[in-house]
Every structure is written in structure tokens, then in C-alpha cells.
């Protein structure tokens, strides 16, 4: 009875709590005794009745346009936005409902730095919108392991969940104007998420891959931010084992984002396909505590229209399993 009550309470907790798309995933508790990835979602699941808690900080550094460049683009008839960086502080919680079914939630605090805009009707004036920050959309994700070979075999998990419109959508600039949805911490939309994750281990080496697709719906200000496809592959090598374990991680992180539309009108200066090469380190202590860092550098960027490109994506965090 106690076990059943615990499951019911944990499930209720997940549903009642109600982020950005599930781009990064709790790294703790997922076979912490083995080498594992950082950004890539593995097929591992938590043991029944166990929890994991993860705190992640991500900094997406962009190549912003200068005021002079934005003025020239406005003269050429382009309505352009520029942002210096996007920062997320993510809080994640996982629970092993069974040995093969893990439920997880993630909620971010988002911050967009130095938002600026140009207008073809007034090309000499660059409008500074300041910063935008607040609680983002919460994601709930289930991971169900359908194939468990263990050892040197292949494990496969199916992934499904939803991003809920819990984030702030009312941020205004210093002049009191409501920022567009793409510059808000929350989207105001319900977005289903589904995918698959695969893991294979061979001694100290772990190979992981996943594909996740999020279907965007219309949110605040009649804005559809566009579907998101995330695909990742990672090789992790346990270079140091024992009470303190060190994993060397190398990942390829791909992301395709559809163009957004506002009131049915598609924004041609939105959407992209980016592929990053991300080396990282994961340090494990006592098999239930870990810290990690990963830095992604673009090796391919295919952007639509005129947009600021990405310099790098830095992710670091700390987690504990219990």
C-alpha cells in the first residue's frame, strides 16, 4: 500500500506542477554508475521509487547586429530584431514510477539580454526593448524503456510529454509596450512532445542518441513559434573510475526550428537548422551526485532570412539522485 501511495503522490505532483522545449535533460540518476551524455537524452530510466534533481544553467551567446548594420537593414526595407544572449536556469525533477518508466518535469527561468529592433519606417532610430526575464513554460516528459538488453546490448526508450503554457507572457519594454511572443519567457501554447532514445554500452564507453519532436500550437498574441526537431548523438568514455568518476563526452547536437507565424502570417526572418559539436566533462561522486559542463560550437548554421547567428551554447549543472 505504501508503494502504491508513493506512486500516486508522485504522479499527482507531476501533473499538478504543470519550459522551453525539452532541449536538455536531467543527467542524474540515469545509470550514474556508467559513463553517460550531458545534452543527449539516453534510454536509461530511474530505478523504481527513486528521484533525481537537476539544476542547469545555459548561456546561448549570439552575434548581435550593430546599430549601424540594423539601420542599413531598415533602409533596405527589413524589420529586424537583435539579441545579445539568451540565458536559462533550468530546474528538473525525475521519478522512477517503475524500473522502466521515468516521469520528469523541467521548468526554466529565462532571460533575454539587450533586445533591439529596427523599423523601415524610421531607419535612423534603433528601438531598445531592454531585457526580458521570467518563469518559462514547464515541460512534463515520460520515458518508457521498451527494449532492455543491458551489458553490451542496446536499450531503447520511447519518449512522450507536453510543454504547458505556465510561463510569463506579459513582459513589457521600458516604454510600456508589450514584447512580441518570441521575446517572452513563456509561449502561451500547449505543445506535445514525442521521440525515441537509444543507448549502447561497451565497457567504459557509452553511445547514446535521441530524436525529439515538439509540435507548436498557437499561443499568446496569436503566435505559433514553430515546430522544433531536436536530434543528438553522444560518445561518453569513463576516463576515471572509483569513488570519483570522470567522463569525457563528445556530442553532436542538432536542432531544426520551423518558421514562426503571427496571426497566420509567416515570419521569413525566423527558423533555422543548426548543428553543434559539444565537448564536455561529467564528474560523478558516490554514484548519486554529479556536476557537468558542455560547450557547443556551431559547425553548421542554416538560418532563414536575416537573423543573429549563434556563437556558442554553454551548459553546466549539478544534480543529485536519491
The proportion of strand residues reads over 45%
Task: Spell out the CATH superfamily.
Answer: Autotransporter beta-domain
Q: Report the count of strand segments.
A: 17
The largest β sheet comes out as: 12 strands, antiparallel, barrel
Integer count of domains: 1
Please report the first level of CATH classification, the CATH class. Mainly Beta
Instruction: Give the termini distance in whole angstroms.
Output: 21 Å
CATH topology heading: Lipocalin
Helix-and-strand structural type: mainly beta
Q: How many helices in DSSP terms? A: 2
Shape: elongated
| pLDDT < 50 stretches | 1-31
Q: Which architecture does the CATH hierarchy give at level 2? A: Beta Barrel
- Provide the helix percentage: under 10%
Could you give the order of strands across the largest sheet? 1-3-4-6-7-8-9-11-12-15-16-17
Please state the average pLDDT score.
89
Rounded to an integer in angstroms, the radius of gyration calculated over CA atoms is: 21 Å
**H-E order:** HEHEEEEEEEEEEEEEEEE
Amino acid at each position: 500500500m505504501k508503494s502504491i501511495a508513493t506512486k500516486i503522490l508522485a504522479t499527482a505532483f507531476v501533473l499538478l506542477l504543470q519550459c522551453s522545449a525539452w532541449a536538455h535533460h536531467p543527467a542524474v540518476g540515469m545509470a550514474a554508475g556508467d559513463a553517460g551524455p550531458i545534452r543527449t537524452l539516453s534510454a536509461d530510466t530511474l530505478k523504481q521509487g527513486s528521484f533525481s534533481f537537476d539544476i542547469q544553467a545555459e548561456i546561448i551567446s549570439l552575434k548581435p547586429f550593430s546599430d549601424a548594420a540594423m539601420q542599413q537593414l531598415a533602409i533596405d526595407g527589413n524589420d529586424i530584431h537583435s539579441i545579445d544572449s539568451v540565458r536559462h536556469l533550468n530546474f528538473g525533477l525525475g521519478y522512477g514510477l517503475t524500473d522502466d518508466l521515468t516521469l520528469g518535469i523541467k521548468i526554466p527561468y529565462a532571460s533575454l539580454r539587450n533586445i533591439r529592433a529596427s523599423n523601415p519606417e524610421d531607419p535612423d532610430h534603433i528601438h531598445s526593448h531592454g531585457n526580458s526575464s521570467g518563469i518559462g513554460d514547464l515541460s512534463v516528459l515520460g520515458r518508457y524503456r521498451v527494449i532492455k538488453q543491458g551489458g553490451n546490448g542496446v536499450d531503447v526508450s520511447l519518449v512522450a510529454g507536453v510543454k504547458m503554457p505556465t510561463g510569463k507572457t506579459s513582459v513589457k519594454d521600458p516604454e510600456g509596450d508589450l514584447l512580441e511572443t518570441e521575446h517572452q519567457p513563456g509561449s502561451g501554447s500547449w505543445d506535445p512532445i514525442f521521440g525515441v532514445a537509444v543507448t549502447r554500452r561497451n565497457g567504459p564507453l557509452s553511445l547514446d542518441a535521441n530524436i525529439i519532436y515538439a509540435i507548436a500550437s498557437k499561443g499568446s498574441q496569436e503566435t505559433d513559434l514553430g515546430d522544433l526537431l531536436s536530434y543528438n548523438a553522444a560518445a561518453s568514455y569513463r576516463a576515471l573510475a572509483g569513488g570519483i568518476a570522470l567522463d569525457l563526452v563528445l556530442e553532436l547536437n542538432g536542432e531544426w526550428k520551423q518558421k514562426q507565424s503571427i496571426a497566420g502570417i509567416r515570419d521569413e526572418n525566423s527558423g533555422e537548422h543548426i548543428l553543434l559539436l559539444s565537448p564536455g566533462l561529467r564528474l560523478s561522486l558516490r554514484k548519486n551526485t554529479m556536476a557537468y559542463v558542455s560547450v557547443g560550437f556551431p559547425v553548421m548554421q542554416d538560418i532563414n532570412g536575416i537573423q543573429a547567428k549563434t556563437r556558442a551554447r554553454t551548459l553546466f549543472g549539478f544534480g543529485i539522485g536519491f
